[in-house]
Design brief:
- The chain is of the alpha/beta class.
- Helices cover about 55% and strands about 10% of the residues.
- The chain has a five-stranded parallel beta sheet with strand order 5-6-7-4-8, sandwiched between helices. A three-stranded mixed beta sheet has the order 1-2-3.
């Protein structure tokens, strides 16, 4: 079967398929982004596959940590039994670490795109308010990056043929990453094309409460008519809240079937994938998976910086924020876009209140809780060591112990570097926490990591990802 696929498909496209399977098998977005994104197929032979990588560090890591899973995936995709080898490809070595591509091509930002003025009519503004849609959430104000590209592309496909393509549209991810923005942008674009479209946006908890009240008051028909007959687009937010209520699931299942049969678009927002929704009935889970399931992940550094640059003019506060402060915020606020925007607003407020219209990075750090003291109170030494152990696939006791294998020694030195450079612990404190005899060992370890960071792009990427996870 694999051989038939190879014969009909470009092998380089098959490597992309292999990467997709590896991403699922690894179930670790940080590892996948660090070690696999940016690799390419260089040669395909009967018994050998040559994969191009950026640097020696990446090749060494893939060979030592992921060789078995890579070879099993390659052999499944390409057929036969092939040995996977790695080569530093010149064209990859000269490229920056892959992050976002579309943001760099985006048109110049116009703050008016956030409003419902200009090219948009008062009727649209009224509709957005009536349908409880956020007027700031549009495709134009959405900053696309590697963490949300699939969701963004699928959302644009939905608006071309609502109810026909990707129905339901199921989007999931952690809080503050843009799920609701995508859903509202879909509804807005559909409205822009046809103001007569009926939009229903409702949190799952509201659906549950309305159903309970309808049952109590004997108005179940009115409740069903509201959702089944009065919406061309139904957006259900926080669907995970109905997983504990079997009666609600049954009602939503029936509503879902009616709407889908009538080619009405269904958009479902969740904090986790359908497979991860506990107590969800198999038939409802099957319905959720019947269209397209897309996730929005944590944005990388370049994506976060692009978001800040896009959002600054929209604040309309007239402040000029230095590149250094923008970079500092992007490096230190890593998990949540709303928190990222909030930090930017604090920085702008500080600048506007300053007599000189200037503030230091240190002042911003204290204000947004990212100075060393605040970080130490939030993330202790034990959490740093635990994160490093997971990243290097070793135990915390290894880092604090006497073993000096390559991986353990490197993880120990990274711990020294992070505790000093990111959390500003004293050298003596670091030595004690790692069971080292004196601080000179710590100083040597920090210098070693600084040298690696400056000379090895693959290692620098891994180090950055670890620090972002801790922040």
């Amino acid at each position: 079967m694999s051989q038939a696929i190879v014969s009909k498909t470009d092998p380089k496209e098959l490597w992309n398929l292999a990467l997709a399977q590896l991403e699922v098998k690894l179930d670790n977005p940080t590892h996948f982004r660090t070690w696999f994104v940016g690799t390419k197929l260089l040669e395909l032979e009967t018994n050998r596959v040559l994969i191009g990588v950026r640097n020696f560090y990446t090749a060494d890591w893939l060979r030592r940590k992921h060789q078995d899973i890579i070879e099993s995936t390659v052999n499944y995709i390409f057929g036969g039994k092939k040995k996977v080898e790695y080569k530093i490809a010149d064209e990859l070595a000269n490229e920056p670490t892959p992050t976002i591509t579309t943001v760099q091509k985006a048109p110049s930002y116009n703050p008016s795109l956030l409003d419902v003025t200009g090219g948009n009519s008062a009727d649209l503004s009224s509709k957005l308010v009536n349908y409880k849609l956020n007027p700031k959430y549009s495709f134009e104000s959405f900053v696309e990056g590697s963490s949300n590209q699939m969701a963004f592309a699928a959302a644009q496909a939905v608006v071309e043929k609502p109810g026909e393509v990707y129905n339901p549209f199921f989007i999931y991810g952690k809080t503050g990453l843009g799920k609701t923005h995508v859903a509202h942008a879909i509804a807005r674009r559909i409205l822009e094309r046809n103001l007569e479209t009926k939009i229903m946006y409702v949190p799952a908890e509201t659906f549950l409460n309305e159903m309970v009240n309808a049952i109590k008051s004997g108005r179940t028909k009115m409740f069903r008519d509201k959702y089944r007959d009065r919406s061309d687009v139904l957006i259900i937010d926080d669907i995970q809240f109905i997983s504990d209520w079997e009666r609600t699931q049954t009602e939503f299942f029936n509503t879902f079937n009616v709407l889908q049969a009538a080619n009405k678009q269904i958009i479902i927002i969740s904090d986790r994938s359908p497979d991860e929704l506990e107590n969800l009935t198999p038939r409802l889970k099957s319905r959720f998976q019947g269209g397209i399931v897309v996730d929005v992940a944590r944005p990388d550094f370049e994506h976060r910086l692009a978001i800040l640059e896009r959002k600054l003019p929209a604040l309309g506060l007239g402040a000029t924020v230095s590149r250094e402060i923008m970079t500092f915020i992007a490096k230190n606020i890593t998990d949540n876009i709303r928190e990222l925007e909030g930090a930017l607003q604090k920085a702008v407020l500080m600048i506007n209140l300053s007599p000189t219209k200037q503030v230091s990075i240190e002042e911003v750090a204290v204000q947004i809780g990212k100075d060393a003291i605040s970080k130490r109170s939030r993330v202790g030494i034990s959490q740093v060591l635990k994160t490093l152990a997971q990243s290097f696939e070793i135990k915390v006791s290894d880092i604090k112990g006497d073993r000096r294998t390559k991986d353990i020694a490197l993880a120990r030195q990274v711990a020294m570097y992070i505790l000093r450079e990111e959390f500003n612990y004293k050298l003596e404190e670091i030595a004690r926490s790692l069971n080292r005899k004196d601080h000179t060992t710590v100083m040597h370890g920090i210098d070693k990591i600084k040298s690696l960071r400056n000379g090895d792009e693959g290692f620098r990427t891994q180090l950055t990802n670890i620090i972002e996870e801790l922040n």
